[in-house]
Amino acid sequence: MPRIAIIGIGLIGGSLALALKRAQIESLEIVGCDTERGVAGRARKQGAIDHEARDATSAARGAAIVAVATPISQLRDVFEAIAPALEEGAIVTDTASTKRDPLRWAAELLPEHVSFVGGHPMAGKEQPGLDAADAALFEGRPWAITPSMGASEGAIRAVEGLVATVGARPVIIDGAEHDSYVAAVSHLPLVASTALFTLASQSQAWPDLATLAGPGFRDLTRLASTDPGLSHDICLTNRENLLHWLDRYIEELRRLRGLIADEGRQEELYKEFVRAQADRDVFLTKPPERGPAGERPETPSAREQMLSFMMGDYLVRRTKEIDRMLDERERDLREQKGP
Amino acid sequence: MPRIAIIGIGLIGGSLALALKRAQIESLEIVGCDTERGVAGRARKQGAIDHEARDATSAARGAAIVAVATPISQLRDVFEAIAPALEEGAIVTDTASTKRDPLRWAAELLPEHVSFVGGHPMAGKEQPGLDAADAALFEGRPWAITPSMGASEGAIRAVEGLVATVGARPVIIDGAEHDSYVAAVSHLPLVASTALFTLASQSQAWPDLATLAGPGFRDLTRLASTDPGLSHDICLTNRENLLHWLDRYIEELRRLRGLIADEGRQEELYKEFVRAQADRDVFLTKPPERGPAGERPETPSAREQMLSFMMGDYLVRRTKEIDRMLDERERDLREQKGP
C-alpha cells in the first residue's frame, strides 16, 4: 500500500492528514509521529492517521512521500534522523515558512537517491496544534512548491498532486524567490500586525482604546496572535528579506504621512485611496495565475498524479524487495549446497 | 406614533433601519431619505423604513430622534437643512467617524431646544450602500456616544437605548478623547492597511506576490478596500490625531526592526512576540468594560429607555398640538363672534 509519512502532527501536519483522509484515497496509508507525547495517538483515534510511528526514522521507513511539518527549528534534526531510513526514490517535502534553509539542509543531509521538493502552504490559524487542525485549512490557498536542484520531474508532479488533493493551489517557485516574496506578503504583515497591536496595547490609553476597538483593529492585529516560536523562526530564517520589505514599508508609510499632512496634496491622497481600493478589488475578484504551474489541477487528475507516482514508486520498491528476496534465497540455496 | 428619522440610507443608515425593524418595536415609525435617487424607495420596499421623505428637512419634521448617517462631508449641510424643522426636545445623533466637527457644527447650527448626542458605530464593511446593509452589522460592536455640552440626560439615555437596541455596546466618551482614540484603533489601521497593499501592489514583483498572498495578507489589507471617500474624510477630519499615531507606529516598526536586525537581541525579540500574543489573548477573551457606561444594557430595558423618552417626547408634542388646536379653535370662535 502506498504510504505517506507525516512528521509533526500539529496544525499543519494534522490538517494535511485530515485533508488527505477527506479525499478518500482508499489505498493510501498515513503514518504519523510527533515529539509531543500522546499527539500521534490522538491523531490515530481521530482517524487523521492510520498508524503511529515512535519517531521520525521509523515513520519515514517505507514511505513514498515524507512530509515534515515540524517547526523549522527541528527540521535539520529530522532530516538527519530520516536520511538513513529513506527508500530509494522517496520524496521528502516540508511545510516551513522559509525555503532557503530547508533546501540547504536537504542538499547537505538527505541521500542522493531521494527527491527533496520543499513546500509552504500559505494558510494558518492563530491556534496551534492538532486540536486546531482542519481538513479545509488549505482549501483554495496557495501552496508554494520549491523543488531542489536534484528533484525528479515525477517527484515535483507528485507533490503538486498532493497539494491539489488537499484543496490548495500549487505554485512552483524558486526557493530564493519564494523567501523574498513571502517576506512581502506574509512576514511583513506579521511584523506590521504585531507592531500595531504592541503600540496600542502598550499605550497608557489602552483600556480606552480596547473599549473602542472594532473589527478593523481585530483583523489588522490578527497576526499578532501567531505562535511566538513561529514568528521568531520567521525573523531568524528570513532576516534579510524581511528587513528589506520592512524598510520599504516604513518608507511607504512616510510617503502617505506626507500626503496626509500636506493640505495642498489632498487630491493626490484621495487618488491613493481610490487606486488601492480599485486594485484590491481586482486582486480579490481575479485571483492571479502564475503561468501553467499556477493553474489548479482538477482534483481527480491531481490525485492520480500523486498516486501514479506513489504506486510507481511502490512498484519499484516492491520489485527491489522481491529482487533482494530472490537474491537472498539464491544465496541461501548456494550456501546450503556449500561452496 | 414615536418617529425616528434616518437621513442617509447607506450601509450604516440602512443597517440601523434594518436592526431597528429586527427589534420589532411595534409603535416605532421609521422615516428615511437619501440624496441618491431611488434609494429611499428601495429601503421602503425592503421594509427597512416605513416612509420615504423627499429631503432631510421633511424627514426631520415630527421626529423624536433624527439619526444622520450621511458622509461627514454632507453633515454640516444636513444640520442646516433640518434645524428649522426640528421639534422642541428632539434628539439629533450622527454616525460619522470623527466627532470634533459634528459637535462643532451642532453647536453652531442646531437650535438650543434640541439635544445633539454624537454617535460612531465601530462597525463597517468594504461594500458601501444600502445593498450591503445588514441588521446584524452592529451586533456586539462598540458604538461611541459623544454627548454635546447641552444634551439632556434623557437624550443621552435615549441614544444609549437606541444603540443597545440594535445590538451594539454603547461607550459614552468625550468627543475629543474619541477622536484621539479612534485615530489609534481605527484610522491608523486604515492607513497601515492601505500602505501595505499599495507597497505590494505597486511593486514590480506584484504578479508573483499576488500569487503567493494568503489569508494573512488578505486580512491585513482588508481596510485598503474602504470606500475612498470615507478614508479621505477620516484623514481630513482627524489629521492631527492620525499623524500623531502614524508617527508612533513608524517608531514602533523601527524599534522592532532594530530587534530583528540585531543577533544579540533575539531573546528580546522572542519575548515581544510572546507578550503580543498573550496580551491579544486577554483582549479577545475578556472584552474590556469602560466603567458603568461600558456595560451593555439588557435589550428590553434599553428599548424601554429609548421608547420612554420617545413616548414622553411624543406626549409633550401631542399636548402642545392639542393646546395649539384649542387655542386656534378659541380664536376662531372669537373671530366668528367678531371683536
Principal-axis shape of chain A equals: elongated
Helical residue percent of chain A?
55-70%
Radius of gyration of chain A: 24 Å
Most strands sheet of chain A: 8 strands, mixed
Runs of chain A in which pLDDT lies below 50 for 5 or more consecutive residues are 291-299
- Helix/strand/pairing class of chain A, anyone? alpha/beta
Widest sheet, order of strands of chain A: 3-2-1-4-5-6-7-8
**Quaternary status of these chains?**
homodimer
Q: What is the count of helical runs of chain A?
A: 14
Mean pLDDT over the full residue set of chain A: 89
Order of H and E elements of chain A? EHEHEHEHEHEEHEHHHHHHHH
- State the separation between the terminal residues of chain A, measured CA to CA: 39 Å
- Tell me the β content of chain A: 5-15%
Counting DSSP E segments of at least 2 residues, the number of strands of chain A comes to 8
Using a beta-carbon cutoff below 8 angstroms, give the protein chain pair with the largest interface and the number of residues from each chain: A-B, 94 and 94 residues
Which short descriptors sum up this protein?
homodimer, alpha/beta, 14 helices
Written account of the structure:
2 copies of one chain form a homodimer. Chain A is 57% helix and 11% strand. The first copy, chain A, has an 8-stranded mixed sheet, sandwiched between helices. In chain A, strand 7, helix 6 and strand 8 (169-172) form a beta-alpha-beta unit. Chain A is built from 14 helices and 8 strands. In chain A, helix 6 (153-165) packs across helix 14 (299-337) and helix 7 (175-201) crosses helix 11. The first copy, chain A, is an alpha/beta fold and 339 residues long. Residues 291-299 of chain A have low confidence and may be disordered. The longest helix of chain A is centred in the C-terminal third of the chain and has 39 residues, at 299-337.
